[in-house]
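Figure caption, in words: inputs first, then the predicted bound structure.
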Amino acid sequence: MTRTLNFSSGPATLPEPVLRRAQAALWDLDGTGIGILEHSHRGAAFRRVLERTTALVREVGGIGDEFAVLFLTAGATHHFTLVPHNFLGEGDTADICHTGVWTGKVIEEARRFGKTHLACNAGPAFDTTPAALTYSAAPRYVYYVSNETVYGTQWAAPPASPPAPLVCDASSDIFSRPLPLADHGLIFAGAQKNLGPSGVTLVIARKDFLATRRPGLPALWDYDSYEREGSLINTPNTFGIYMIGEVCAWIRDQGGLAVLGERNARKARVLYDFLDVSRRWRGHARPGSRSHMNVTFRGDSPELEAALLARAEQAGLSGLAGHRSVGGLRASIYNAFPEHGVQRLVDLLGELEG
Ligand code: PMP
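Bound structure (4'-deoxy-4'-aminopyridoxal-5'-phosphate present):
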């Protein structure tokens, strides 16, 4: 069977060796005679899975003991609420780098708990990650989305010299390049793009930042209770945690994040180089802010865009429609997306250009 080239923004393409191992583990995990979906989260076999995944996340990410590595059930959106709930008191201000759809939702949620200040505002075009940031007098944290999945922008580096700990939504570029940890209080990432299936979020949190959370929070809404209970307050997404471990082992075997970072940059460059000289297609994000994960672009007419989607589907290329809120086209080319698939897309775009 030929697999479709899946440009979906998430859930997204996963590495083939990982899927094959998971297939076997569904039937029998590590010779236990019980599949991964059937093991108790309190049993020894799953304990080993959790320990292995945690160790691999630490190894691949270069994450030291000053950080907690946690797995929370539910998606990244959950953390748009959990972050202010844990860290933003009534008089506090969250400084937010507003770069698109995802920070728009974050601003709305944070306002339920405290004040917000826009450290930058890339709207309405949302085609950059602004260079100049203006902070409020005493922010509680500085929030940014490392890769804006919908508009296709990515911070080349985190905001420099922030006046408070950085909180980062890394859902769409986690482990796609070396992980910047300096200045960060908390990083969270929904797994369904670069790490595994949906329904589980990886949280990397500095322990001394966790210690500053608001007291008296309900257990399931308190980051620190996940740390105290080793991500086992209740039944976690056991399969998701297994998959994150397998994906991290694959990343390690590929040579680690520096190797993947170079590969991802190369993949994206093939597409951007084409768009930069094309007569009928143009990229959305500006140079310097271009995402290596989600390449957003437009044709010069709705007919051309529709023709691409139709031809792509026939040719075995799927998931190229832009996000429902902005339209246009988007090629999501996460870690596991093959280089030859990007070339196939470029060839198709060239053919339609005539
Ligand atoms: N943040 C970013 C950057 C995303 O791309 C997404 C999903 N595409 C989310 C948050 C929301 O994730 P979830 O659907 O898992 O809540």
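Residues 293 and 334 are 5 Å apart (CA to CA).
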